[in-house]
Design brief:
The chain is α/β, with parallel strands linked by helices and about 375 residues long. It folds into 2 domains: about 170 residues, Rossmann fold (3-Layer(aba) Sandwich); about 200 residues, Up-down Bundle (Dehydroquinate synthase-like, alpha domain). It is built from 14 helices and 8 strands. The strands form 2 sheets. A 6-stranded parallel beta sheet has the order 1-8-5-4-2-3, sandwiched between helices. A two-stranded antiparallel sheet has the order 6-7. The protein is globular, with a radius of gyration of 20 Å.
Protein backbone atom coordinates (compact mmCIF):
# COMPACT_ATOMS: atom_id res chain seq x y z
CA UNK A 1 0.00 0.00 0.00
CA UNK A 2 1.16 3.54 -0.74
CA UNK A 3 2.30 5.58 2.26
CA UNK A 4 0.44 8.82 2.81
CA UNK A 5 0.10 11.99 4.85
CA UNK A 6 -3.38 13.45 5.12
CA UNK A 7 -4.82 16.66 6.55
CA UNK A 8 -8.27 18.19 6.33
CA UNK A 9 -9.02 21.27 8.40
CA UNK A 10 -12.53 22.05 7.12
CA UNK A 11 -15.75 20.89 8.72
CA UNK A 12 -18.00 19.72 5.87
CA UNK A 13 -21.76 20.18 6.25
CA UNK A 14 -23.28 18.31 3.34
CA UNK A 15 -26.90 17.73 2.31
CA UNK A 16 -30.15 19.14 1.04
CA UNK A 17 -31.37 22.14 3.00
CA UNK A 18 -28.12 22.54 4.95
CA UNK A 19 -27.79 26.19 3.86
CA UNK A 20 -30.43 26.92 6.50
CA UNK A 21 -27.71 26.33 9.11
CA UNK A 22 -25.48 29.16 7.89
CA UNK A 23 -26.67 31.64 10.53
CA UNK A 24 -25.97 29.26 13.38
CA UNK A 25 -22.58 28.31 11.90
CA UNK A 26 -21.43 31.83 11.02
CA UNK A 27 -22.32 33.29 14.43
CA UNK A 28 -19.68 31.04 16.04
CA UNK A 29 -16.96 33.10 14.38
CA UNK A 30 -18.22 36.66 14.75
CA UNK A 31 -21.18 39.01 14.40
CA UNK A 32 -20.04 41.08 11.41
CA UNK A 33 -19.54 39.29 8.13
CA UNK A 34 -18.63 40.23 4.59
CA UNK A 35 -20.61 38.14 2.11
CA UNK A 36 -18.52 37.69 -1.06
CA UNK A 37 -20.29 36.84 -4.34
CA UNK A 38 -20.39 37.48 -8.05
CA UNK A 39 -22.96 40.03 -9.28
CA UNK A 40 -26.57 38.96 -8.93
CA UNK A 41 -28.43 37.40 -11.82
CA UNK A 42 -31.74 35.60 -12.23
CA UNK A 43 -30.31 32.27 -11.07
CA UNK A 44 -28.46 33.66 -8.04
CA UNK A 45 -30.65 36.54 -6.83
CA UNK A 46 -32.92 34.33 -4.74
CA UNK A 47 -29.98 32.40 -3.24
CA UNK A 48 -28.18 35.60 -2.19
CA UNK A 49 -31.23 37.03 -0.47
CA UNK A 50 -32.05 33.73 1.20
CA UNK A 51 -28.57 33.55 2.73
CA UNK A 52 -28.62 37.20 3.80
CA UNK A 53 -32.02 36.71 5.48
CA UNK A 54 -30.79 33.63 7.34
CA UNK A 55 -27.69 35.45 8.55
CA UNK A 56 -29.58 38.56 9.65
CA UNK A 57 -32.20 36.47 11.46
CA UNK A 58 -29.31 34.92 13.39
CA UNK A 59 -28.23 38.39 14.55
CA UNK A 60 -25.41 38.85 12.03
CA UNK A 61 -24.52 42.22 10.51
CA UNK A 62 -24.09 41.51 6.80
CA UNK A 63 -22.16 43.59 4.26
CA UNK A 64 -22.51 42.26 0.72
CA UNK A 65 -19.61 42.55 -1.73
CA UNK A 66 -20.95 41.38 -5.09
CA UNK A 67 -18.04 42.50 -7.27
CA UNK A 68 -16.26 39.20 -7.91
CA UNK A 69 -15.53 38.47 -11.56
CA UNK A 70 -14.79 35.07 -13.10
CA UNK A 71 -11.05 34.50 -12.60
CA UNK A 72 -11.12 37.05 -9.71
CA UNK A 73 -8.54 39.80 -10.00
CA UNK A 74 -6.36 41.63 -7.52
CA UNK A 75 -8.58 44.67 -8.16
CA UNK A 76 -11.64 42.64 -7.12
CA UNK A 77 -9.85 41.62 -3.94
CA UNK A 78 -8.87 45.20 -3.13
CA UNK A 79 -12.46 46.42 -3.51
CA UNK A 80 -13.73 43.63 -1.28
CA UNK A 81 -11.00 44.35 1.26
CA UNK A 82 -12.07 47.98 1.50
CA UNK A 83 -15.61 46.86 2.34
CA UNK A 84 -14.36 44.31 4.87
CA UNK A 85 -12.30 46.96 6.65
CA UNK A 86 -14.96 49.68 6.60
CA UNK A 87 -17.58 47.29 8.00
CA UNK A 88 -15.12 45.87 10.56
CA UNK A 89 -15.95 42.36 9.38
CA UNK A 90 -14.58 39.56 11.54
CA UNK A 91 -15.76 36.77 9.23
CA UNK A 92 -15.70 36.34 5.44
CA UNK A 93 -18.36 34.18 3.76
CA UNK A 94 -17.75 33.03 0.20
CA UNK A 95 -21.03 32.16 -1.52
CA UNK A 96 -20.90 30.80 -5.06
CA UNK A 97 -18.42 28.95 -7.22
CA UNK A 98 -14.66 28.88 -7.05
CA UNK A 99 -14.30 32.56 -7.95
CA UNK A 100 -16.35 33.70 -4.95
CA UNK A 101 -14.73 31.27 -2.53
CA UNK A 102 -11.19 32.05 -3.71
CA UNK A 103 -11.92 35.78 -3.50
CA UNK A 104 -13.25 35.33 0.05
CA UNK A 105 -10.00 33.63 1.10
CA UNK A 106 -7.84 36.31 -0.53
CA UNK A 107 -9.88 39.08 1.11
CA UNK A 108 -9.48 37.32 4.47
CA UNK A 109 -5.72 37.75 4.02
CA UNK A 110 -5.58 41.24 2.50
CA UNK A 111 -7.99 42.72 5.05
CA UNK A 112 -5.63 41.81 7.91
CA UNK A 113 -2.17 42.18 6.35
CA UNK A 114 -0.03 44.89 4.82
CA UNK A 115 0.05 45.17 1.05
CA UNK A 116 -1.94 43.23 -1.51
CA UNK A 117 -3.01 39.60 -1.59
CA UNK A 118 -0.52 39.27 -4.48
CA UNK A 119 2.25 39.75 -1.91
CA UNK A 120 1.17 36.48 -0.26
CA UNK A 121 1.39 34.09 -3.19
CA UNK A 122 2.69 30.61 -2.39
CA UNK A 123 6.28 31.47 -3.35
CA UNK A 124 6.32 34.81 -1.49
CA UNK A 125 5.68 35.60 2.18
CA UNK A 126 3.02 33.63 4.03
CA UNK A 127 -0.04 35.06 5.80
CA UNK A 128 -0.24 35.04 9.59
CA UNK A 129 -2.78 33.94 12.17
CA UNK A 130 -4.43 37.35 11.74
CA UNK A 131 -6.15 35.93 8.63
CA UNK A 132 -9.92 36.21 9.07
CA UNK A 133 -11.95 32.99 9.30
CA UNK A 134 -13.79 31.93 6.14
CA UNK A 135 -17.05 30.03 5.75
CA UNK A 136 -17.74 28.68 2.27
CA UNK A 137 -21.11 27.97 0.67
CA UNK A 138 -20.76 26.20 -2.64
CA UNK A 139 -23.24 26.75 -5.48
CA UNK A 140 -21.33 24.81 -8.16
CA UNK A 141 -19.71 21.40 -8.36
CA UNK A 142 -16.23 21.74 -9.67
CA UNK A 143 -13.56 23.89 -8.07
CA UNK A 144 -13.10 22.09 -4.76
CA UNK A 145 -12.24 25.47 -3.22
CA UNK A 146 -14.56 24.84 -0.29
CA UNK A 147 -12.14 22.20 1.06
CA UNK A 148 -8.73 23.52 -0.04
CA UNK A 149 -6.06 25.88 1.28
CA UNK A 150 -5.78 27.61 -2.10
CA UNK A 151 -7.03 30.98 -3.37
CA UNK A 152 -6.47 31.56 -7.09
CA UNK A 153 -6.21 35.19 -8.21
CA UNK A 154 -5.38 36.98 -11.45
CA UNK A 155 -3.13 40.00 -11.87
CA UNK A 156 -4.66 41.61 -14.94
CA UNK A 157 -1.79 44.05 -15.49
CA UNK A 158 0.77 41.25 -15.51
CA UNK A 159 -1.58 38.85 -17.37
CA UNK A 160 -0.64 36.33 -14.69
CA UNK A 161 -2.75 33.91 -12.68
CA UNK A 162 -1.34 32.44 -9.49
CA UNK A 163 -2.38 31.32 -6.03
CA UNK A 164 -2.13 31.90 -2.33
CA UNK A 165 -1.48 28.58 -0.58
CA UNK A 166 -1.55 28.21 3.20
CA UNK A 167 -3.40 26.04 5.71
CA UNK A 168 -4.89 29.21 7.22
CA UNK A 169 -6.98 29.53 4.04
CA UNK A 170 -8.94 26.33 4.62
CA UNK A 171 -12.55 27.39 5.24
CA UNK A 172 -13.47 26.73 8.85
CA UNK A 173 -16.80 25.30 7.68
CA UNK A 174 -18.13 24.49 4.23
CA UNK A 175 -21.81 24.10 3.46
CA UNK A 176 -22.58 22.00 0.41
CA UNK A 177 -26.29 22.08 -0.35
CA UNK A 178 -27.14 20.45 -3.71
CA UNK A 179 -30.44 22.31 -3.87
CA UNK A 180 -28.45 25.53 -4.48
CA UNK A 181 -27.02 24.02 -7.67
CA UNK A 182 -30.21 23.19 -9.55
CA UNK A 183 -30.32 26.47 -11.49
CA UNK A 184 -26.69 26.39 -12.68
CA UNK A 185 -26.49 26.94 -16.48
CA UNK A 186 -25.38 23.94 -18.52
CA UNK A 187 -22.05 25.53 -19.56
CA UNK A 188 -21.10 26.18 -15.94
CA UNK A 189 -22.23 22.67 -14.98
CA UNK A 190 -20.05 21.18 -17.72
CA UNK A 191 -16.93 23.26 -17.10
CA UNK A 192 -16.99 22.90 -13.32
CA UNK A 193 -17.91 19.23 -13.59
CA UNK A 194 -14.98 18.54 -15.87
CA UNK A 195 -12.74 20.35 -13.38
CA UNK A 196 -13.77 17.72 -10.81
CA UNK A 197 -12.51 14.96 -13.08
CA UNK A 198 -9.27 16.87 -13.68
CA UNK A 199 -8.65 17.36 -9.95
CA UNK A 200 -9.23 13.69 -9.25
CA UNK A 201 -7.15 12.38 -12.14
CA UNK A 202 -4.23 14.76 -11.61
CA UNK A 203 -4.17 13.91 -7.90
CA UNK A 204 -3.62 10.29 -8.93
CA UNK A 205 -0.74 11.37 -11.18
CA UNK A 206 0.92 13.60 -8.59
CA UNK A 207 4.00 12.38 -6.67
CA UNK A 208 2.23 13.23 -3.39
CA UNK A 209 -0.61 10.83 -4.13
CA UNK A 210 -1.00 8.31 -1.30
CA UNK A 211 -3.35 5.43 -0.67
CA UNK A 212 -6.15 7.57 0.75
CA UNK A 213 -5.99 10.21 -1.99
CA UNK A 214 -6.01 7.51 -4.67
CA UNK A 215 -9.10 5.92 -3.09
CA UNK A 216 -11.00 9.23 -3.11
CA UNK A 217 -9.75 10.14 -6.60
CA UNK A 218 -10.96 6.93 -8.16
CA UNK A 219 -14.38 7.32 -6.56
CA UNK A 220 -14.67 10.93 -7.77
CA UNK A 221 -13.82 9.92 -11.35
CA UNK A 222 -16.43 7.16 -11.31
CA UNK A 223 -19.08 9.58 -10.07
CA UNK A 224 -18.28 12.22 -12.71
CA UNK A 225 -18.34 9.64 -15.49
CA UNK A 226 -21.82 8.54 -14.46
CA UNK A 227 -23.47 11.72 -13.25
CA UNK A 228 -22.07 14.67 -15.23
CA UNK A 229 -23.80 13.58 -18.46
CA UNK A 230 -26.96 12.87 -16.46
CA UNK A 231 -27.07 16.27 -14.79
CA UNK A 232 -26.47 18.01 -18.12
CA UNK A 233 -29.43 16.08 -19.53
CA UNK A 234 -31.61 16.61 -16.42
CA UNK A 235 -30.43 19.83 -14.70
CA UNK A 236 -33.01 19.68 -11.90
CA UNK A 237 -32.16 16.10 -10.89
CA UNK A 238 -31.18 16.59 -7.25
CA UNK A 239 -29.73 13.09 -6.89
CA UNK A 240 -27.23 13.69 -9.72
CA UNK A 241 -26.53 17.22 -8.44
CA UNK A 242 -25.82 15.65 -5.03
CA UNK A 243 -23.51 13.09 -6.58
CA UNK A 244 -21.55 15.77 -8.42
CA UNK A 245 -21.31 17.89 -5.26
CA UNK A 246 -19.96 14.86 -3.42
CA UNK A 247 -17.43 14.15 -6.18
CA UNK A 248 -16.36 17.81 -6.11
CA UNK A 249 -15.75 17.56 -2.37
CA UNK A 250 -13.75 14.34 -2.71
CA UNK A 251 -11.64 15.76 -5.54
CA UNK A 252 -11.07 19.00 -3.63
CA UNK A 253 -9.77 17.03 -0.65
CA UNK A 254 -7.49 15.17 -3.09
CA UNK A 255 -5.84 18.28 -4.51
CA UNK A 256 -5.51 19.75 -1.02
CA UNK A 257 -3.44 16.72 -0.03
CA UNK A 258 -1.68 15.88 -3.30
CA UNK A 259 -1.89 18.56 -5.97
CA UNK A 260 -2.38 19.07 -9.69
CA UNK A 261 -0.09 18.56 -12.67
CA UNK A 262 0.72 19.78 -16.19
CA UNK A 263 -2.83 20.45 -17.48
CA UNK A 264 -3.58 22.78 -14.56
CA UNK A 265 -0.34 24.70 -15.12
CA UNK A 266 -1.38 25.25 -18.73
CA UNK A 267 -4.99 25.98 -17.78
CA UNK A 268 -3.91 28.60 -15.26
CA UNK A 269 -1.73 30.26 -17.90
CA UNK A 270 -4.68 30.42 -20.29
CA UNK A 271 -6.89 31.94 -17.60
CA UNK A 272 -4.26 34.51 -16.68
CA UNK A 273 -3.67 35.66 -20.24
CA UNK A 274 -7.27 35.28 -21.46
CA UNK A 275 -9.61 35.82 -18.47
CA UNK A 276 -12.71 35.32 -20.62
CA UNK A 277 -11.87 31.61 -20.84
CA UNK A 278 -13.43 29.69 -17.94
CA UNK A 279 -11.03 27.52 -15.96
CA UNK A 280 -12.80 24.25 -16.79
CA UNK A 281 -12.95 25.25 -20.45
CA UNK A 282 -9.21 25.93 -20.48
CA UNK A 283 -8.59 22.49 -19.01
CA UNK A 284 -10.86 20.88 -21.57
CA UNK A 285 -8.90 22.54 -24.37
CA UNK A 286 -5.51 21.19 -23.26
CA UNK A 287 -6.55 17.81 -21.85
CA UNK A 288 -6.45 15.67 -25.01
CA UNK A 289 -2.92 16.82 -25.84
CA UNK A 290 -1.72 16.57 -22.23
CA UNK A 291 -3.21 13.09 -21.87
CA UNK A 292 -1.44 11.95 -25.03
CA UNK A 293 1.82 13.38 -23.67
CA UNK A 294 1.47 11.61 -20.31
CA UNK A 295 -0.41 8.35 -20.80
CA UNK A 296 2.58 6.10 -21.56
CA UNK A 297 4.36 7.22 -18.36
CA UNK A 298 1.27 6.79 -16.14
CA UNK A 299 -0.09 3.52 -17.47
CA UNK A 300 -2.15 2.37 -14.48
CA UNK A 301 -3.82 5.74 -13.94
CA UNK A 302 -4.47 6.33 -17.64
CA UNK A 303 -5.86 2.82 -18.09
CA UNK A 304 -8.19 3.39 -15.14
CA UNK A 305 -9.45 6.66 -16.65
CA UNK A 306 -10.05 4.99 -20.02
CA UNK A 307 -11.99 2.11 -18.50
CA UNK A 308 -14.21 4.32 -16.37
CA UNK A 309 -15.10 6.60 -19.28
CA UNK A 310 -15.46 3.82 -21.88
CA UNK A 311 -16.69 0.33 -20.97
CA UNK A 312 -15.27 -1.09 -24.21
CA UNK A 313 -11.76 -0.47 -22.95
CA UNK A 314 -12.31 -2.90 -20.07
CA UNK A 315 -11.59 -5.79 -22.41
CA UNK A 316 -7.97 -4.86 -23.19
CA UNK A 317 -4.74 -4.85 -21.17
CA UNK A 318 -3.38 -1.87 -19.24
CA UNK A 319 -0.87 -0.66 -21.80
CA UNK A 320 -3.38 -0.64 -24.63
CA UNK A 321 -6.07 0.85 -22.39
CA UNK A 322 -3.69 3.66 -21.38
CA UNK A 323 -2.93 4.41 -25.02
CA UNK A 324 -6.68 4.87 -25.60
CA UNK A 325 -6.93 7.62 -22.96
CA UNK A 326 -6.48 10.62 -25.33
CA UNK A 327 -9.31 9.42 -27.59
CA UNK A 328 -11.50 8.47 -24.63
CA UNK A 329 -11.10 11.90 -23.01
CA UNK A 330 -11.80 13.58 -26.36
CA UNK A 331 -15.00 11.55 -26.78
CA UNK A 332 -16.09 12.46 -23.24
CA UNK A 333 -15.50 16.17 -23.92
CA UNK A 334 -17.62 15.92 -27.05
CA UNK A 335 -20.32 14.13 -25.04
CA UNK A 336 -20.51 17.03 -22.56
CA UNK A 337 -20.15 19.65 -25.34
CA UNK A 338 -16.78 20.97 -24.17
CA UNK A 339 -14.52 19.95 -27.03
CA UNK A 340 -12.88 23.18 -28.23
CA UNK A 341 -9.51 24.46 -29.43
CA UNK A 342 -7.60 27.58 -28.41
CA UNK A 343 -8.50 29.12 -31.76
CA UNK A 344 -12.20 28.67 -30.92
CA UNK A 345 -11.90 30.92 -27.85
CA UNK A 346 -10.00 33.76 -29.48
CA UNK A 347 -6.41 33.01 -28.51
CA UNK A 348 -4.12 34.68 -31.09
CA UNK A 349 -1.74 32.30 -32.84
CA UNK A 350 0.98 34.93 -32.49
CA UNK A 351 0.90 34.51 -28.68
CA UNK A 352 1.35 30.73 -28.50
CA UNK A 353 5.02 31.10 -27.61
CA UNK A 354 4.16 33.47 -24.76
CA UNK A 355 1.47 31.08 -23.57
CA UNK A 356 3.96 28.20 -23.52
CA UNK A 357 6.38 30.24 -21.41
CA UNK A 358 3.60 31.29 -19.04
CA UNK A 359 2.61 27.63 -18.64
CA UNK A 360 5.96 27.05 -16.94
CA UNK A 361 5.55 29.79 -14.32
CA UNK A 362 3.63 27.58 -11.89
CA UNK A 363 5.48 24.42 -10.76
CA UNK A 364 2.54 22.13 -11.61
CA UNK A 365 4.19 20.91 -14.80
CA UNK A 366 7.14 19.58 -12.76
CA UNK A 367 4.79 17.21 -10.90
CA UNK A 368 3.65 15.49 -14.08
CA UNK A 369 4.78 11.85 -14.51
CA UNK A 370 6.51 13.01 -17.69
CA UNK A 371 8.05 16.40 -17.06
CA UNK A 372 7.64 18.76 -20.00
CA UNK A 373 10.34 21.04 -21.37
CA UNK A 374 9.51 24.44 -22.83
CA UNK A 375 9.72 22.88 -26.28
CA UNK A 376 7.31 20.11 -25.20
CA UNK A 377 4.83 22.66 -23.89
CA UNK A 378 5.11 24.67 -27.08
CA UNK A 379 4.13 21.52 -29.01
CA UNK A 380 1.24 20.90 -26.60
CA UNK A 381 -0.02 24.47 -27.03
CA UNK A 382 0.17 24.09 -30.80
CA UNK A 383 -1.70 20.77 -30.61
CA UNK A 384 -4.40 22.50 -28.54
CA UNK A 385 -4.65 25.36 -31.04
Amino acid sequence: MKAFDFFQNTKVVFGRGKVDLVGEIASRFGKKCLLVTTPSNQALHQIYHRVIDILENAGMQVTHFDGVTPNPTTDDISRGTEMAKSSQANLIIGLGGGSSMDAAKAIAVEATHEGSCWDYLFYKKQPSEKTLPVVAISTTSGTGSHVTQVAVVTNSKARDKSALYNSLLYPRVSIIDPELMISIPSFVTATTGFDVLCHAFESMLHPNCGAYVELLSREAIRIVAEHLPKVLDQPTCVSSRSAMAYADTLAGICIANAGVTLPHGMGMAIGGMYPHVAHGQALAIVYPACTAFTCNTAVDQSAFLSRVLDNEVCRIDNIEAASKAPKVITDFLKKINLYKKLSDVGVPKSELGDLAKQSMVLPDYKNNPRVASLNDIRHLVEAAY
